[in-house]
Amino acid sequence: MKGFVFHGPGRSAWSDVPDPEVKEPTDAVVRVDTTTICGTDLHILKGDLPEVQPGTVLGHEAVGEIVEVGDDVRTVRPGDRVLVSCISACGRCRYCRESAYGQCRGGGGWILGRLIDGTQAEYVRVPFADLSVYALPGAVGSKDAVLLADIFPTAYEVGVRKGHVRPSDTVAVVGAGPIGLAAIATARLFGPERIIAVDLAASRLEAARRLGADAVAEAGEVPEQLVADLTDGLGADVVIEAVGEPESFELCTRMVRPGGRVANIGVHGEPAVLHLEDLWSKNVTITTGLVDTHSTPTLLSMTAAGRLPTAQLVTHTFLPDQMEEAYDVFARAAETGALKVVLGEPTHDEVAVRAA
Asked: Which family does it belong to (predicted)?
């Protein structure tokens, strides 16, 4: 089969790799119909995650069909259409029993495309299938469902829920990429007074407005001043960091009000300065986190009911063998306007539209 293989920092290719097979009785093998690229994949290609070994197939988000299961798998069977979660959960360790699947100590956590071969391939082996794939209702399309593998649970759990967004809050989201936009969309569920989006790209700020941001600021426009002006000098109740750069994290700590919360989502590859000389007396709470995906069933139900704007985040679609082109477009988002790029075979409806 073919897969997108990491060969070391700055080196990758869509190439032949061995077919996956069931190794453990809790495994499932999924034929990948739809996958996507995450900002974390770009961090891997830069060398920010040294635990990813050369030869690893990247990717941790997919929709597909079960083709084989181990003897202990009970919740899905061959032929089922499923969402492959970015997090694998053993279901037995202390953290899994607390639904903190991202911290699994039984061989799970974020392993796909990091510690084992991932989803940017024709087939993928998914460990602990009973808790790591979700059967999909027919009402949810593949392009919508694949956004529930990572970005929506991550934005909702690590950003909105850990930031304790409440009615009447002022929420500032730094970074209007896919994760930041999903944070804007899910923060709206809690009725904040206003949401402020910060980004360098005008196209992403426009997308932020479409998804519910009440005000936007380019990072070069002193966004902390805009936040101060809108809050009578107090600062934002919740600031969500969705970039993963030292400058963006430090900006978040300058925008938060006394007693406020900074929820860091971004994947950081280098140190950021924590200015405790300014923050120690402000009663600020700073949270970090790897997504647990315990919210996936809820988000899936909301998507089936048309309550999440998933489709609005997909800006580019590619065939699987266009993986290298898709990475190029996604990596140059400021130039291409890319938000989420999706790779998969066209649906019957899409084929009909192209033929017309």
From this structure: Belongs to the zinc-containing alcohol dehydrogenase family.
- Give the C-alpha separation, 296 to 148, whole Å: 7
Q: Is the pTM of this model over 0.85?
A: yes
**Residue pLDDT tens, the chain, 356 long:** 999 999 999 999 999 999 999 999 999 999 999 999 999 999 999 999 999 999 999 999 999 999 999 999 999 999 999 999 999 999 999 999 999 999 999 999 999 999 999 999 999 999 999 999 999 999 999 999 999 999 999 999 999 999 999 999 999 999 999 999 999 999 999 999 999 999 999 999 999 999 999 999 986 789 999 999 999 999 999 999 999 999 999 999 999 999 999 999 999 988 999 999 999 999 999 999 999 999 999 999 999 999 999 989 999 999 999 999 999 999 999 899 999 999 997 654 444 333 33
Tell me the CATH number of domain 152-287, given options 3.40.50.720, 3.40.50.1220, 3.30.450.20, 3.40.50.300. 3.40.50.720
CB 261 within 8 A of CB 229: no
State which CATH number among 3.40.50.300, 2.40.170.20, 3.50.50.60, 3.90.180.10 fits the domain covering 2-150+293-355.
Answer: 3.90.180.10
Q: Cα–chain-centroid distance for residue 243?
A: 12
H/E stretch holding 67: strand 62-69
Q: What CA–CA distances, in Å, run from 103 to 98, 111, 278, 294?
A: 10, 11, 31, 12
Domain ranges for the chain, please list them. 2-150+293-355, 152-287
